[in-house]
Structure to design on (181 residues):
């Protein structure tokens, strides 16, 4: 059985505007042009999943239930836009958290590869043919440790990036690369 091609997506800064600790619906705003981008990625044959660190739960800024309600809202809006996200994986743990239930380190917390490895397994994905789109170096580190062949850093800055990471400024640049992979 052949493996799938996956596009793993960070959430804050890729799917929605990153206002810092976005954990409730009232603070959530989709990025401009994200819907046509995601539809086209699906048309290219990529299976889509979102992998997000959510330390706001560990820090007590919002609850796990708030995050779950926001995720349901986000997925419902995407469904109305004809976008199928296979699943959302989230890491609530943070070693500096104030909520004892989540105040610890986790193999799922990026830059560690736990969420990436789980997504590859669930999607039956070929990691070498798959891509990770994130807006932080921790996303790129998790993708590299998880064996993802194409690591795309969405940023307007020109940071010093590790070897093997492509810096992209727009969704159109991402689509050009995805069509090439």
């Amino acid at each position: 059985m052949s493996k799938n091609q996956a596009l793993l997506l960070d959430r804050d800064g890729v799917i929605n505007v990153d206002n810092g600790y976005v954990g409730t619906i009232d603070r959530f705003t989709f990025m401009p042009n994200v819907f046509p981008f995601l539809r086209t990625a699906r048309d290219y044959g990529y299976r889509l999943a979102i992998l997000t660190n959510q330390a706001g739960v560990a820090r007590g800024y919002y609850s796990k239930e708030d995050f779950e309600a926001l995720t349901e809202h986000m997925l419902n809006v995407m469904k109305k836009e004809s976008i199928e996200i296979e699943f959302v994986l989230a890491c609530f743990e943070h070693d500096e958290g104030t909520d004892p239930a989540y105040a610890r380190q986790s193999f799922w917390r990026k830059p560690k590869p736990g969420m990436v490895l789980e997504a590859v397994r669930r999607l039956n994905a070929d990691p070498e043919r798959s891509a990770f789109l994130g807006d932080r170096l921790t996303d790129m580190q998790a993708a590299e440790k998880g064996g993802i062949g194409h690591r795309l850093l969405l940023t307007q800055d020109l940071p010093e990036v590790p070897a093997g990471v492509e810096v992209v400024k727009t969704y159109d640049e991402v689509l050009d690369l995805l069509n090439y992979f």
Observations:
- The radius of gyration is 15 Å.
